[in-house]
Amino acid sequence: MRKKLLSCIVLNLVLHGVVLALEGINGENMHCSVRVLIADDNVVNRDVVTGMLEILQCETAIARDGYEAIECCKKDAFDLVFMDCQMPGLDGYSATRTIRELESKRGGRVPIVALTANVMYEAEEKCIEAGMDDYLSKPFSLNSLKEKVVKWARVEKSSGGADESGASALKNLGQTAEIHGEESPDDNQSTGVLDQNVQACLKALQAQGSSDMFTRVIKLYLDSTRELVEVLQAACRAGEHEKIGQYAHALKSSSANVGAIRLSGYLAELEIKAREEMLEDVEDRSANIVREYGLVVSALSDEVSR
Hints:
The protein has about 300 residues and is α/β, with parallel strands linked by helices. The protein has helices at about 1-10, 20, 45-55, 65-75, 90-105, 125-130, 140-150, 165-175, 195-210, 215-240, 240-255, 260-275, 280-305, and strands at about 35-40, 60-65, 80-85, 110-115, 135, 155-160, 160.
């Protein structure tokens, strides 16, 4: 079943192909010497963040859960950590607390930015209480990620002063690293089955990267989510709280990435209800999700046929 969950959001893997096309934006080969640790249990999410950071010329390392994040911080020095809040085994909050305890003994403090999937139960206060410095809500844009790196990344100073290939290089990326349309969303385009702002960002990435990336993303979503919707329905019929939350969370993430924001919102609500074990209206919610998913499939199919 874990393979099904991973495959349902495998569409994001193609975003990694943008990296090669965007290396040296506008002909510039910038190396910012910023070391970033990405802690996330989802292989697809890790790949997306890695790809974006490579676009920004950052050096990256991977931790697959909270335990690995702690070990990475024990062994290596990082300028910044992006920490997923919800990870099995040891979540991001607990991992951050342990890292802060280690730092209190040995000195130093690495900036930790939370990667949150739902601000309703991963509020800023909870992140700060755990010892995190900031948070970034999923899904996020390249520009939003860049802002956090510029804000928090630490760059070692050489004898000649600050490393010009570090944070300053990131700032100098300026407009060149921007995806047109990201920073000025049109509220009129954010309603309906598909959020056109998200669609525009995907198409802009395609224009700068792989020529068929947008089509591949949509097709992968269509191919990989049907079975997940079916197992989510089955879990709803059986009243299996844990599975409902797990499946809703996975489908929520991939849906948001293709612009199905309304569907993602329905799934977020169901996930919260499942966690709270308040599923009196689960059948109605499931039926509503299935209907909305059908509209999303139809809209996305129209997009790729244009």
